[in-house]
Design a protein that fits this description.
The structure is a single chain. By secondary structure, the chain is of the alpha/beta class. Helix content is 31%, strand content 25%. The chain has 3 domains: 208 residues, 3-Layer(bba) Sandwich (FAD/NAD(P)-binding domain); 119 residues, FAD/NAD(P)-binding domain; 113 residues, Enolase-like, domain 1. A hairpin with a 4-residue loop joins strand 4 and strand 5. Its cofactor is FAD.
Length: 461
């Protein structure tokens, strides 16, 4: 067995792992990166990029069907070629993955170890049966894996995740989506717009990460106009019948049986820590079975091991994963002595139509005395011009007028979310935000309306 010593070992070559490797390598230390699967980040291979390719095709189909209100009539039926749709998704996905693989190919060959790493002790890793590594610190950046509800396990290959969708060569006729989070809503709506018979169910009232009940219900009302989306549904069991996925559901107190080509499990993701051997280290677990780590340093309590990226479940977003990788590497190099770096303002976007966004402090975490400003996009000028006038934005501020955060469902929420996140990171107040220029006519004028309402609420207290 080959024996190697290093200062920092990084397990996982995704966004967090690659950033950790680069950061540690720049210090001149001996760094190893271990990967058991194919190179190419989750974002490029099965996440951000291929999902947006599918959504882009779905948006094209949707827009083509809805030109008449503008007086523009498309003669003849809109034809969707599922094979062509998925061919472009796969080709462009492979192109994005190729860029990542090129980056990894540029890493020093002697630093790359292929195989499954497992802790023998806090500082000793074994990779398959060929290499034993002694490391000063270890950064675990193994990502996450889809949750597979036990009630759906009997479906076998008919139970899929987002990681399977992008390898399709054609579109199926029907899909049941289980989960109304980011993945469920994005892929469910995209498939429906591409002609797939889609139902989206959830065991609770949650929707796209929204905690503001007014915004959430506004979103539910909008999406229900287009989609078969049902809340408070219990999955009782499942089976394969005549090549179809048969699912037993409890809806409004009544049991129902429904058949689909596939069931897309989108009920969340869990840390990928399987067979990692953390039990052979001083790592500790809480009463919910989660590894105990410090969220400011990413260090597992009582160890020289760090959790970076989706594996720590702090914020499963690409730029956050990159920041995690850099932070973990800096902490590992300093043996936990460096001050943790400042983090960026929190922001999450769902690329549905309308889009959903949460920035900064969500409604559920607002301090006592916080005020809310609101705008309904139903009558917002630019939104009406473009016929995208649906949605609701709530902004939050504290009693001193400092901007705290926002939740919204609405047109081009991805862009408004960025403006709000930048404002939050700069520590702006409502007065300072309203002193910024707002062109006319733009969707951002809706944001100004919400900010003004929050400002008025403060002055009225």
């Amino acid at each position: 067995m080959k024996e190697i010593q290093c200062d920092v070992a990084v397990i996982g070559a995704g966004t967090a792992g690659m950033t950790a490797y680069r950061t540690a390598k720049r210090s001149g230390k001996r760094v190893l990166m271990i990967e058991s699967g194919p190179y190419g980040t989750m974002c490029a291979r099965v996440g951000c990029m291929p999902s947006k390719l599918l959504i882009a095709a779905a948006d094209a189909a949707h827009h083509a069907r809805h030109t008449a209100p503008f007086g523009v009539h498309v003669d003849g039926a809109i034809r969707i070629d599922g094979k062509e749709v998925m061919d472009r998704v796969r080709r462009e996905r492979d192109r994005f993955v190729g860029f990542v693989v090129e980056d990894v190919n540029g890493f020093d060959e002697k630093d790359k170890i292929r195989g499954h790493a497992r802790f023998l002790s806090e500082h000793v890793l074994q990779v398959d049966e060929h290499t034993r590594i002694t490391a000063g610190s270890v950064i675990v950046a193994t990502g996450s894996t889809p949750v597979r509800p036990k009630e759906l396990e009997p479906l076998g290959a008919l139970l899929i995740s987002n990681e399977d969708v992008f390898d399709w060569t054609d579109l199926p006729r029907s899909v049941l989506v289980v989960g109304t989070g980011v993945i469920g809503l994005e892929l469910g709506q995209a498939l429906a717009r591409l002609g797939v018979n889609v139902s989206i169910i959830n065991r609770s009232q949650s929707l796209a990460g929204l905690s503001d009940p007014t915004v959430r219900e506004a979103g539910r009302a909008i999406f229900s106009q287009e989609l078969d989306i049902r809340a408070d549904v219990t999955v009782l069991g499942s089976e394969v019948v005549n090549g179809k996925a048969r699912v037993h559901l409890k809806v409004d107190g009544q049991e129902r049986v429904e058949d689909y080509d596939y069931v897309l499990g989108a009920a969340g993701r869990r840390p990928q820590l399987d067979d990692l051997g953390l039990e052979n280290t001083p790592a500790q677990w809480d009463d919910k079975g989660r590894v105990v780590y410090d969220m400011t340093s990413l260090q597992i309590k009582g160890t020289s091991i760090y959790l970076a990226g989706d594996v720590n479940q702090r914020a499963p977003i690409l730029h956050e994963a990159a920041d995690d990788g850099r932070l973990a590497a800096l902490q590992a190099l300093s043996e936990g002595q460096d001050e943790p770096m400042a983090r960026r303002a929190r922001m999450a976007v769902v690329f549905s139509d309308p889009q959903v966004a949460v920035v900064g402090t969500p409604f559920k975490s607002l301090p006592q005395g916080a005020v809310t400003g609101s705008v309904n996009f139903g009558n917002q000028g630019r939104a009406r011009v473009m016929l995208v006038n649906r949605g609701l934005l709530h902004v939050y501020a504290d009693q001193d007028g400092a901007f705290l955060g926002a939740e919204m469902v609405g047109p081009q929420a991805e862009h408004i979310a960025h403006l709000l996140a930048w404002s939050l990171q700069m520590g702006l107040t409502l007065d300072q935000m309203l002193a910024m220029p707002f062109y006319h006519p733009v969707l951002e004028e809706g944001l100004r309306t919400a900010l003004r309402q929050a400002q008025s609420a403060l002055r009225g207290q």
